[in-house]
Amino acid sequence: EDWQVWKNLSDMWVSQVRRYGDRVMVVSKRDGRWRDLSWNEVDREAKKLALGLMSLGMNVGDSVAIFSKTRLDWIQACLGILLAGGRLVCIYHTDSPPQCEHIITNSDTTICFAEEQEQLDKLMEIRGRCPTLQSVVVFEPYEPKDLEDVLSYHDLLKRGESLLGDEGCLRALQERLEKPGTDDAFALIYTSGTTGFPKGAVITHGNTLFCCWAFTKLFPIGENDLAFCFLPLAHAGALTLTLFSSLSAGCPLAVAEDMMNTAMEDMVETGPTWMFCTPRLYEKVYNQIMGIIEEAPWFRKKLILSALKVGYRISALKQETRSVPVGTRLLNTLCHLLVFRKIKDMFGGRMRVPFTGGAPIAKKIIEFFDAVGMPLIEVFGQTETSSIIMTNRLDDYKIGSVGKPIPGIKVRLGQDNEIQVYAPELICRGYNKDPEASKSILTQDGWLQTGDIGEMDQGGYYYVVDRKKYIIINSAGKNIAPQYVENILKTHRFISQAIAYGEGRPYMVALFTLDEAEVIRHARDNRIIYTDFRELTKN
Fold first, then answer.
1. From CA 182, how far away is CA 210, in angstroms rounded?
2. Measuring CA to CA, which residue among 59, 11, 18 is closest to residue 181?
3. Strand partners, 64
4. For 238-271, how does the pLDDT look when each residue is reduced to its tens digit (9 = 90+)?
5. Structure confidence at residue 108 as a pLDDT band (50, 70, 90)
6. What is the largest CA-CA distance in the chain?
7. What is the 3-state secondary structure (H, E, C) of 230-273?
8. Taking phi first (over 0 means left), then psi (-120 to 50 degrees means alpha), and beta for anything else, what does residue 38 get?
9. DSSP assignment of 52-118, as one string?
10. Which pTM does this prediction carry?
């Protein structure tokens, strides 16, 4: 019961603001410069937004959506919705008009924050088919200015600011802060929807608080750390692990300027100590480094490979919980100065723990990062559990596994070796307006069916084989996990994405896309003549 420190997420926020006050809460780039914002400053903006939303007619429990990339305004809007007693609805910034229409109508969204003209145009296209949508608030300038019930983010802040001196409004806001309990809905997070329209997992205040408690119990982050926030906050992992776990631990956040294009540069400039990210970033960095090694002069190549050999040896000893000989430790220090430090500098130089999750990752990529002294911790979870079920620990890990269950939950292998979870505090309250789907995710005795096939070794470490529905059965009746094949393919420096196929066939085939930057660099270094990338792919 130690996770029940706060009554709800609003209570957590108010408590942390009171505790940390003028200390830095977020680092954000605006007009080309990084600037620090304190807990008090962010709280003031969040209160303005909450009062502004109330002035638009938002009631307790109303659904308010955010349709935007990750940015400071996203975080402040989320906190404003929370303080006003609303239910957060997450929409990916790339969602199409039909997907937005489904999410808005399924959630009964009344107000929607949109990032810029692109998102606003999508909303205007479907607005006539979304009867509950009353107002749209836009972060960036938009055209035309006179759209009915559309206002700028700046104007909403001004409306809220004008109410900061109104005692009646402040009293009403205070009542809203205290109202939700741990069983009340905090957010609707929509699954990816690869098999039709996405389903909205109803995540409660208690789900999120429990998840934050378990994560920060295993990984003691705090006010001296800096989290890097760049994944879409519509993703359960980014919302819960990066944003709310940081808030619950008093850990400041560095928000990427452009989550799509500037992540690596932003890391170098801010120097975060930890982050949660999907495998794609680590795959790109790994392939980039492998390309550098492959094309390096003989002596430099020999130096890097020798250093990695030392790193791999230390990694193996740590996994076996054996002590590292003094001579090997001294050699590793030299390797750090000559080689590993340059790789760490790509992540800002202070990165202690990068986390990965949301999709499988090749074992050799985790081995590589562990060898350079930056242990890549794999997290296993899903939207329905607010992001986390199992994870490796810094002092108890086995590369290739997804570790052991987090505190306070139970895991078992059910029929067909499906991973199943018993965690009343962690599992969502089903899917919004979908009783059939809500019923189908649980077994008769109340365990969540993850849909993942797993294995467990004698040490209690779990391994994910593949999604149950993705397992291929070839014409000889052999079961094949395609993700294992795909992950190996993606470790080739020229391959960016891969998909393996072979259902009912006597052989496997694969479709893959090329990593344009790596292929062009190879062509340049080897003096291959071409007119455009299309021609180069045929060479």
1. 10
2. 11
3. 88, 111
4. 999 999 999 999 999 999 998 778 999 999 999 9
5. very high
6. 75
7. CCCCCCHHHHHHHHHHHHHHCCCEEECCCCCCCHHHHHHHHCCC
8. beta
9. HHHHTTPPTT-EEEEES-S-HHHHHHHHHHHHTT-EEEEE-TT--HHHHHHHHHHHTEEEEEE-SHH
10. 0.89
